[in-house]
Amino acid sequence: MRFLKKIGMMVYMILMLAAGSLVFFISLDIVPVEQCAGALNILHGSMGWQIVMWAVSAIFIITGIITPIRVARTIRSGRMIKFQNPDGEVTISISAIEDYVGKIARDIPDISNVRSRVSFGRKGINIVSDVTIAAGTNIPEITEKIQMEVRNKVQVMLGVEEKITMTMYISKIMGNIPENEGQHHGEPEPERVPFR
Q1: pLDDT tens readout for residues 77-125
Q2: Displacement of CA 107 from its chain's centroid (Å)
Q3: Which is deepest, 86, 91, 145, 154, by most CB within 10 Å?
Q4: What separation in angstroms does the CA of 161 have from each of 47, 79, 91, 155, 157?
Q5: Per-domain residue ranges for the chain?
Q6: What's the CATH code, domain 81-174?
Q7: 10-34 burial: b if 16+ Cβ within 10 Å, else e
Q8: What CA–CA distances, in Å, run from 159 to 73, 90, 128, 188, 190?
């Protein structure tokens, strides 16, 4: 997979250098615009060259989409939280904390999927989670439970005193609604009086 990534980056670099050089030479009038127009007419007239141009444009489009996404992931995974310990400095990857938050939340019943983003700033650690819950779940109760558990476990794991803020977005409610959803637990049903 690394080999394919390297080839993709090389192709992207060559294409960008070629396109940039062409625009640069046209702007300096080293390559006349008429020559470029003539070359494009020749390329447009031949079916073989049209296929080559389609392939080149597809490579441009695909690498133009994939490269920024990969760069953003690399930058994001490289971010670290650093803090001092009595024995020295400790560095923890933000992606490791995000994975840990997901594991904590998935251990809670009625939670089926959690995606978290963690950021660290002057005000402390911020955790934003997209959560999928089971239908019929008491949302205020389950979110409070998740927030408290995640906050406590992350604070214990990191051993830091910084404030941990957790924001939750319920992105999906899965499953069927239980049949006794409308009934209150522990309360007897009201007595029904027949119509007189």
Answers
A1: 557 777 777 788 877 888 888 888 888 887 888 887 888 888 877 778 8
A2: 22
A3: 154
A4: 67, 20, 15, 7, 11
A5: 2-75, 81-174
A6: 3.30.70.1350
A7: eebeebeeeeeeeeeeeeeeebeee
A8: 27, 10, 20, 47, 52
Tokens for 165? 């803020």
Reported as a pLDDT band with limits 50, 70 and 90, residue 190 is: low
Computed over every residue of the chain, the mean pLDDT equals 77
